[in-house]
Design a protein that fits this description.
single chain; 580 residues; alpha/beta; D-Maltodextrin-Binding Protein, domain 2; 46% helix
């Protein structure tokens, strides 16, 4: 339910953004344009920040009541500035370092002695460099021009940027680039955070609550209407960029917000503690820095007074009924009273049942969200840490196994919360994942799937099964065909079927075929669930191809779990199922 201020003239407040108008702030535009702020009794001005503007200082100085900041709000708090985090919008920070791609073996340590363009608010990037053993005196810091062309032109060697927008410029310029993310070093900070001051909460608690609720309602709308928001930004807020740019930014932003997994605005006290401890590890915060007063509690203890009042009313009704039965001698009156009492009791019982059912539903939804968050924050973090440790120990195949397990976990959680996924989006996710896996192993990827030509919807079950088949096929190459230096992935739509193949140039199948193993058995079971044919084939002069054919109808949500049989492909493609 949207919290609203008492009915009177609209209360004017200002929201200070951390950068210029962009999809990065789409939820606030939605809250304003959809009338959510007005319904909450607020007249909101949204002010962008230009280079040199400090959003936190503007809020502390009273130029704005609310602001958008990074996880460096903790450092402001330590400096004695009374900032309070109201809500987290980005579950992961978009901050990264981007360098020119020079080769498959380059690492963050190659930036030592190089020119790096940094901005004042990039504390987590400084933490990243320090944790990787690259002190600031080992790089040449360049003042940020906010022009990615400087990297393309070779004026600098690396630039601090956002994954949500900078890659767009390099992609359009066909510029080969390498991204270094703090998450690879275990620094997984929150991104954009809505904040205010202790004074605002003390003087106007209802206003702060109303602004937060309306903003999050706006973010929910924005995550469900990306194209509409891109058009709105162009029409009313900024024409600095194209529609294509804002749509690219929207897709990248959704990957950081995870609206299909975590409720927008949710923040975990343990995660903030981890962020504070990370700052402490590199000397930017004292150990065990107190979070008291820093985190806003949007969900105070539930008021159960209605329950006690209901119980009292029920008890009183029972007493009155007893007295009336004793003193009313008329059978007709008694009958009428009994009917009234029964009706009242039934209505009250129904009310209790409805409330109880609602409480159970909310509890179940809350528990489901808690499990998703725990998987995301705890188990996922451990798998990421394992992958990083294996990579540092020069164990690429162990690192790949950990990353594959992490992706399996994310698939189960995200696909369960997202009932329908366009096939084109699924293909894009496959490509990004496969490129990352093969990059760390040193195997080239030849990707021949045109994602833009595949708009049809895919059910959660079909998406999960297809992803697992592709992932296991790649894993088989990494485990059993280590001489391979190239993998080709191809997909076509033909005669109402999806035909997918994964081919390597390794040694091929052993004589007589390989012994069936758990991975192969799992692939067969998932193919059967899809109503698909799956087979393995020798490739001349060497190598192996895994091929899958399934009717497109089996991808559709309404056909999930009801796969239909398919005819085998020709003998040139499908034959006896020997597999590694």
């Amino acid at each position: 339910m949207l919290f609203a201020l008492p009915s009177h003239a609209l209360d004017h407040v200002t929201l200070q953004l951390k950068w210029t108008h962009a999809f990065q702030f789409a939820g606030y535009y939605a809250a304003k344009e959809q009338g959510y702020y007005r319904e909450a009794g607020l007249d909101v001005s949204i002010v962008e920040a230009l280079p040199g503007v400090d959003p936190v200082n503007n809020v502390l100085e009273g130029k704005a009541e609310f602001g958008v900041g990074t996880s460096a709000l903790l450092l402001q708090r330590k400096a004695g500035k009374p900032v309070v985090a109201l809500a987290v919008i980005f579950q992961h920070s978009p901050y990264v370092l981007i360098a020119r791609q020079l080769g498959a073996t380059q690492t963050i340590h190659d930036l030592a002695g190089k020119r790096v363009m940094l901005e004042p608010q990039a504390d987590e990037l400084l933490a990243y460099l320090k944790k990787e053993g690259i002190p600031l005196d080992r790089i040449t810091q360049i003042e940020h021009s906010y022009d990615p062309q400087d990297l393309v032109d070779g004026k600098i060697d690396a630039i601090a940027g956002y994954t949500t927008n900078q890659p767009y410029y390099f992609y359009r310029a066909r510029f080969p680039y390498q991204i270094y993310t703090p998450r690879s070093a275990g620094i997984d900070f929150y991104g954009d955070n809505l904040f205010t001051t202790e004074q605002e909460l003390k003087m106007h608690p209802e206003r702060a609550q109303a602004f937060r609720a309306a903003s999050l309602r706006g973010w929910k709308y924005a995550t469900e209407h990306s194209e509409e928001m891109a058009d709105l930004i162009l029409a009313k807020y900024s024409r600095r960029h194209t529609r294509d740019y804002f749509l690219f930014e929207a897709k990248q932003t959704m990957a950081l917000i995870h609206p299909e997994l975590i409720e927008v605005g949710y923040m975990n006290a343990s995660r903030w503690r981890h962020i504070a401890d990370t700052y402490a590890d590199i000397g930017m915060l004292p150990r065990d820095f107190s979070l008291d007063g820093f985190l806003y509690d949007p969900d105070p203890r539930h008021d159960m007074a209605w329950l006690y009042r209901g119980l009292a009313a029920l008890l009183l009704l029972s007493v009155v009924t007893g007295i009336l039965v004793i003193f009313r001698k008329s059978e007709q009156m008694n009958r009428q009273l009994e009917e009234r009492v029964a009706a009242a009791q039934q209505a009250l019982a129904a009310s209790f049942d409805e409330r109880r059912a609602l409480e159970i539903s909310h509890a179940a939804a809350g528990e489901r969200e808690r499990i998703y968050r725990d998987l995301h924050d705890d188990v996922g973090a451990k798998l990421l840490g394992l992958a990083i440790s294996a990579q540092r120990a020069d164990l690429p195949h162990a690192a790949d196994l950990a990353r594959s397990a992490l992706q399996d976990l994310r698939d189960v959680v995200s696909r369960s919360a997202q009932p329908v996924t366009p096939l084109g989006d699924l293909v894009a996710d496959w490509r990004a994942e496969t490129e990352l896996r093969l990059h760390h192993i040193g195997i080239a990827l030849d990707w021949r799937i045109p994602a833009e030509d595949m708009p049809m919807p895919v059910s959660a079950e079909a998406a999960l099964n297809l992803s697992r088949i592709l992932r296991e096929a790649v894993t088989n190459v990494l485990r059993h065909a280590r001489q391979a230096d190239r993998i080709a992935v191809n997909a076509t739509l033909k005669q109402g079927c999806l035909i997918l193949s994964i081919e390597d140039n390794g040694p091929g199948l052993p004589p007589g075929g390989a012994r069936p193993h758990r991975g192969m058995t799992g692939m067969r079971a998932r193919a059967a669930a899809l109503g698909a044919d799956l087979a393995w084939q020798e490739v001349e002069p060497n190598g192996c191809r895994v091929a899958l054919k399934m009717p497109l109808a089996n991808l559709l949500p309404e056909n999930a779990g009801a796969a239909t049989a398919v005819d085998p492909l020709s003998s040139q493609l499908f034959h006896s199922p020997n597999s590694r």
